[in-house]
Specification:
This protein is mainly alpha-helical. The chain is built from 20 helices and eight strands. Helix content is 46%, strand content 5%. Strands 1-2 form a two-stranded antiparallel ribbon. It has a two-stranded antiparallel sheet with strand order 3-6. The termini are close together.
Length: 519
């Protein structure tokens, strides 16, 4: 922790304030000094906004933990195409210490712990603060506190998933510190199990606060509360852009979809517990079933993007199929950054720099001429017929006003489709094959997959294979595939050179930065 300690006591100067037009659409002149940051309730809002902005940076979810480095080590980018950069090529080869990959790994570690330090500073300052400082009193203070706790849990958990062995390997050592104080002291590293318990402890403390705020105090921003019969599309519009439809309380409370909300907490808890292993499966199932039974089936707050919004003209298409996203991050220039990464300055339709690998084999069972799948037909593009290189349309910049406002800047972090996969996997583990098929078909049918699983799937092995296949389809460009491979402790996975499989043994744990391991 040598270099990390030197970064831990960082100032929050430059934390960004709320724009008058959009919650995270901020400019440098909105920055405020650290000395004043925690002197007003609006200062706490600014501090939290700045943390969300940092989470959406290139070093973290804005690139490397979504469509960048994590997608490359998931073997998603075709090395044979000859157009990917040296960093993506090295990452695809699982080489983490080259001149191109080592800085990326180091930046993930350092930026992640800097975000945690800022969260700790906010948490420690807000605890003793009188509620009179906040415009909406206790509810606002508690909301900021609960979001900070949840984000601290999420950031720690993803660092664990990157820099420590998976629970499936039964690790016995200590690997990472769980930093829950704003201090420069050396913090002892934890075992994986102890670390996960600390993640869950933070989520437990935040859970009741977020539940009350999002389901009792201010549910108007979580679903289409002004409509007689809300639909998944309109519910998502309210979650991600509610300021267009309601004007109570103000912008800080509108964009619950790009803030850590109660549905996101349930999703993260299910994610953490499925990763933690069978001893935690019941907890994962409980959280996932609350989402599925209460908020998908009963209240219908969450749902999937309708086929008509996927099969339409590309300019109007919801290429992120965002209506089932429980939590996303906001990065204003995301679509522009991705377009530059894919096409460079030429914008040529035949020289994609991030060509997808293994697409024909991934969709083979659902692209037979009889069956189809929206995720292939409408969410993946191809270059000219001669080269036939595939690329994801997920980050395609839309010019249609509603889609542009909601999807262009959105980084998917937690999806409801993942919750269905978790429920299917636990059902399979418990020998409930038909139940597992039904959960998996919830996702597949929503994505236009026409093949009926019950006709060909009857064993746990067959169901597990279908679950993994669907996760790979869903997580293109989002980073989740690597975490799934690691959690399942798969020794080999489809290689990005499209010539068989690559051995993942020894490659699931990223090396600590050299500054953390040398004097």
């Amino acid at each position: 922790m040598k270099k990390l300690i030197s970064h831990i006591l960082i100032a929050l100067t430059g934390m960004l304030a709320v724009s008058c037009n959009a919650w995270l659409d901020v400019t440098p002149e909105n920055a405020i000094a650290d000395d004043d940051l925690f002197s007003t309730g609006f200062g706490y809002r600014n501090a939290l906004n700045g943390i969300y902005t940092n989470l959406a940076s290139d070093e973290l979810y804005g690139k490397q933990l979504s469509w960048g480095f994590l997608s490359a080590i998931s073997q998603q980018y075709n090395q044979k195409a000859g157009t990917i950069s040296p960093m993506y090529a090295d990452a695809s080869e699982l080489i983490y210490n080259t001149v191109d990959t080592e800085p990326v790994v180091t930046a993930i570690w350092e930026k992640g712990y800097k975000v945690i330090a800022n969260l700790n500073k906010l948490i420690e300052n807000i605890r003793p603060t009188d509620i009179s400082l906040f415009e909406y009193g206790e509810e606002e203070k508690n909301l900021i506190y609960a979001e900070a706790l949840s984000l601290r849990a999420m950031m720690h958990f993803d660092l664990l998933r990157l820099f420590a062995p998976a629970t499936a390997t039964n690790p016995s050592g200590t690997y990472l510190p769980y930093r829950d104080k704003y201090e420069a002291a050396v913090v002892e590293k934890c075992t994986v199990t102890d670390f996960i318990e600390k993640v869950l402890k933070d989520l437990l403390e935040a859970e009741d606060i977020l539940r009350k705020f999002d389901t009792e105090y201010h549910p108007e921003a979580m679903y289409a509360s002004q409509m007689y019969e809300p639909t998944p599309e309109w519910n998502a519009r309210y979650r991600f852009n509610s300021g267009s439809y309601i004007d109570d309380m103000g912008a800080f409370f509108w964009y619950r979809g790009i803030r850590f909300n109660y549905l996101a907490l349930l999703g993260l808890k299910a994610r953490v517990c499925i990763y933690a292993g069978p001893a935690y499966y019941k907890n994962a199932e409980t959280a996932a079933k609350e989402l599925y039974n209460t908020y998908y089936q009963q209240k219908r707050w969450i749902g999937f993007t309708e086929g008509e919004n996927i099969t339409c003209n590309l300019n109007s298409r919801y290429t992120k199929v965002s209506h089932d996203i429980l939590f996303g991050l906001y990065k204003k220039q995301l679509a522009t950054d991705y377009e530059q990464a894919v096409w460079g300055s030429s914008s040529s339709s035949s020289t994609t720099r991030l060509p997808l690998a293994n697409i024909p084999s991934l969709f083979a069972s659902d692209n037979t001429g009889v069956y189809t799948d929206y995720r292939l037909t409408y969410l993946i593009g191809t270059t000219n017929e001669t080269q036939s290189k595939y690329y994801t349309l997920k980050y395609n910049p839309s010019v249609e006003s509603v889609v542009e406002a909601m999807e262009n800047p959105m980084i998917p972090v937690i999806r409801f489709s993942e919750i269905c996969h978790i429920l299917a996997e636990i059902s399979s583990y418990n020998g409930k094959i038909t139940e597992g098929i039904n959960y998996l078909e919830t996702v597949r049918k929503a994505r236009g997959a026409e093949r009926t699983l019950s006709l060909t799937v009857s064993t746990r092995e067959q169901l597990d294979a279908e679950i993994l296949l669907d996760i790979r389809k869903e997580m293109i460009g989002e980073g989740g595939t690597f975490y799934t491979y690691k959690r399942m402790n798969l020794s080999t996975v489809p290689d990005s050179d499209e010539e068989g499989e690559i051995n993942m043994t020894g490659s699931y744990v990223l090396p600590l930065p050299t500054s953390e391991t040398t004097n």
